[in-house]
Amino acid sequence: MRIRTLLIALVALCASSLAMAADYYVDVTNRTGYTIYYMYVSPGNSKSWEEDVLGDDVLMNGDTQRVTLTGYTNPIFDIRLVDEDEDSYTFWNVDVSTQDIIVTLDHLD
């Protein structure tokens, strides 16, 4: 009986942990007139930027890149893009569950 109760509790704990984590995505469209070389996406409460999600790719002017964010518990993210001239464009506290990003020169830091 104890083993059964323990197993039920363990399954419930695992299920609740999985239910809290979610997958999000955000579409980022480049309308700056420049090529974007780096795109950093971090949780809104983070104190530092995570890895460049573009890797070896670039985001050409006019193109859109979908960024999938896996295993997070909150849809609020900070997004920083850096172009070919090392100019940056930063978006703070973006709710990626309701908002995509269109980056223009108006967003230049």
TrEMBL record:
Signal peptide (residue range): 1-21
Superkingdom of this protein's organism: Bacteria
Keywords on record: Signal
Protein name, as recorded: Argininosuccinate lyase
